[in-house]
Each structure stands twice: as C-alpha cells, then as structure tokens.
Design brief:
Elements (H helix, E strand, L loop, with lengths): L1 H4 L3 H14 L4 H18 L2 H17 L5 H12 L3 H14 L3 H14 L2 H14 L4 H13 L3 H14 L6 H14 L3 H20 L5 H17 L6 H13 L6 H6 L1
Length: 261
Amino acid sequence: VLARKAGDPEAAAQYLEQLFLIDPDNTAGLQLLAEVEVQRFRQTGDEQDIKSAELALIKAIDLDPQQWKFPFTLARVYFFTGQVDKAISWSQEAVHDWEGLETLTNLGTYQFCHGDLASARNTYESALVFSPDHPVITSNLATLYYYLGQYEDALNFYQQLESKEPQKTELYQYWVNEADTFYHLDKIDKARALYLKSLDYLDSVLAKGEANDMQKAVRISVYVRLIKIDETLASPALIASLKKEALELEDNQDMLTRFHL
C-alpha cells in the first residue's frame, strides 16, 4: 500500500507477488493489485496492465460477491478504457451492494459521460442526500439541469456554487454558466453583464501572460456568445483576432479546452 501511494507501482507489484505465493485468494491483495495495475496503465498505456486489473477484480468478485469495492473498482477500469456501458453496469452493481456517496457519484459520472442525462441527474440527486454541499455533485447537477432545460434549477445551483467558491479567481466559470442560463431564460441584459464580467477577468489574466489554454478557450467562446447577443461587436479585427487565437490552440487535446473551442 505504501509503495503504491508513493507512486512506485513496480515495488507494490513485487510485494503483492510475494503475498499471492502465500495466499493466492487474498481479496484485499487482489483489490490492491487492480489499483496498482490501473496506476501502471495510466502511466504507460499498456493494455496488459488494465487486463491484469480486470482479471484480478473478477476473481475478487467471485470470492466475495458482497464486497462493493470490487465492482466499484472494476467499473473504473472499464471507464478508463472507454467501455462506458460496462462501467455503468458494474457501477450499478456497486450501488446495489452499498449505496453511498462514492458509488452514486461515480455512477452518475458514467451516466453523464454516456449521455444518459436524466439518469445521471437522478443519481446525483441521490448522492446529494449524503453530502448536500458537495461541490462536484452540485456543479455536475447544475450542468445537467442546464442541458435538460431546467434553467431555473440550474441557475439556483450555479448561484449556490458562486456563493461558496473559496477561490474567487475561478468564479469566471460560474459567471459564464450563469450567463448561459440567463440567456436561455431570455434575460439578455443579465447574461450580457455576466459575460462582460468574466471577460474583464480573462482579459486581465491574458494581458499579464498568466492565462492557461482552457482560460484562453473560454475567453474566445465568451466573445462568440456576446456576438450572438450583439452582432455589432463582430468587427473584422475582433473576428480575425479570435480566429488566430483559436488556431493557436488547435492542437491542444485537453477535453475541457476542446469543448470550449
């Protein structure tokens, strides 16, 4: 366990090999082996590592079918390899074995990524019972409400998040989300004010040379949103500048950056 937490999966695997010589059916060891192999996979991308994790967890489930951590971890294995259907199935099994914050949050995330927004919303709402102020769940629920057209609910959650956000420099993300929601509620003046507020922050970060790629992408997307509201802003100079900035980010593979682009 210490070797894995220290970021040394090779040493952890060696210790586990010694354990399995003594006790090949040690389920705690099989769970740990799976976590080590997932750690290896995320470092190297070697599919053999993720296959080893899968086999260890299937064996552990056969030995102890009631232990929720085994299907919970197996769901993560499938999610990391893009097998979201299997991730959802095993995550549901984990929830059946133990309905708690961890199991529900992961199931909601898999359903969200699979595009099953209504199910994800229901799952996150169940998770929120265990931790009513959980920022990740609240944020994901706000986004789900937005995409499901529940704009008043989305706005309520975004405003809750804004009031509790300790890192004030990151509030621009909530301002943009709130502005999008106001836009769909046909409250254009409020949307415009929040878009401009977020741009004040993003322009200042860019001017200081401190903006990361995601912030640059958000900034471009906010300008596009403003142009939808007021086409007179679309000067040839601004359009050319935004196109140039977007092309400079073209090779960035970060999921959130590409979403905003």
